[in-house]
Structures are given as structure tokens and as C-alpha cells.
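Tutorial handout. Part one gives the primary structure; part two gives the three-dimensional structure as C-alpha cells.
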Amino acid sequence: MINSIAGGGTLLTFPALIALGVPSVVANATSTVALWPGSLTSFWGYREAIRPIRPWWLHWAIPSLAGGITGALLLIRTPEARFNALVPWLIWGATALFVLQRPMMRWIGGHSRTHTEVESEAPPRRYLLYQFGVSVYGGYFGAGAGILMLAAFEMMGLRNIHTMNGLKNWCGLNINAIAVAVFVVSGIIIWPMALAMAVGAMAGGAIGSRMAQRVGQVWVRRAVVAIGIGSGVTMFLKGA
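Part two.
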């Protein structure tokens, strides 16, 4: 459910696996596999919210797939501890950007896009490059990747939080799909644990996407900020 709102599901499944004695890299890969079905149901729940920006789907899928496979390959080849120290700072920075972006846009005289503009234009290339970087991180660990994506969507001028969440879920679906393929081929998945968590992820994704669209944009934004701050604190304390 949390994953469908702001991409924080990893912060529940990963520590749970670690607590059960699973090695960190294996726990990370198993967590990704477990959460991917939830990404699918979350995307399905938001399909109507992102229908107006359907011309953008392929544009966002390409950097998401490319970054996801890069991050997954890095995970199975490099020590995880080197990157974990940066995770809380990345999450906090993205959360702050998400909170401050509207005042910043008003200050510099930015203008929101309309759905007509979105349908007739490709996303700016700098945001697609940014998405590739976020997707590398998403394939590598992923906690807070949703916050990083939402911050970029806000900077582009998207203003409907449900459209932003739907696009985030579409990107996450692609990132995790290619990462799952890498982890499955590498043979590091603990399947009994992954399948048990996947059942809960699918139910939570479907319920969370519907709930988020019913409670209103203000409360969803507050939830995004709260999850971002909490995720950063959790990862900071874990690395302390």
C-alpha cells in the first residue's frame, strides 16, 4: 500500500528480510521480486489517471528499463554498504525538493503544463536523463525512488498528484521488471519468502492506489512528504 503512494515498500520488506538473517544483497533482490506484482496492481489502479499522458509512456519506459538493468547489475557486482551511506541524503533531498518546488516555480515565473501540451510534446530530455539516473538507483536499491521521480514530475509542471503517482508507478513497473529479470537469472532469490511477500504486495498495491485517489491531493502530498522524511530517518539510523 505504501509503495503505491510513494515507493516506500522496500523500507518494510528489506528490513524484515534482514531481521530474518537473509544476506543484504539477497534480501534486496528478494524484496524487489516480492514487490514487483504490487507495482503491476498499483499501475493498473492508476491507469485512468495517466491516460491523458499516454503519449509519454514509451518515453519514460526507455530510461526506466535502461537504468533498472544497470542498477541491478551493479547490485550483484558491488558491495552494498558503499551506496547505503548516501541513501538517506538522497531521499531527504528529493523530499525537500518536492515540498519547495511550487514556491520555487512561482518565484521564477514557471507555468504549469496543460494536458493538451503534455499530449503533444515529448518530455524534456534532461528529465529523461534524470530518470535514467533514478532508475539506476531504483534497480540497485529503490527505497525512495518514487520520491525522486515525483520531484522531477513536479519540476516538469505536472500538478495532479494522482497523474504523478500513476506515472511514477508506470516507471517503477519497468524498473522493477528488468531488475527482477536480472535477479532471477543470477539465482539469488529466496523464492518462498518472495512469493509470500508478493501476495501482500499485490493486495496492498490495489487497495493503496484506490485509497490514494479518494482521500484528496492535499493528504496524498502530506503522505508523500511524511514517507520521504521517515524513509530517510530509517536508512540513516540503519547506517549509523
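Part three, for discussion. The radius of gyration is 17 Å. Residues 2-239 form one domain.
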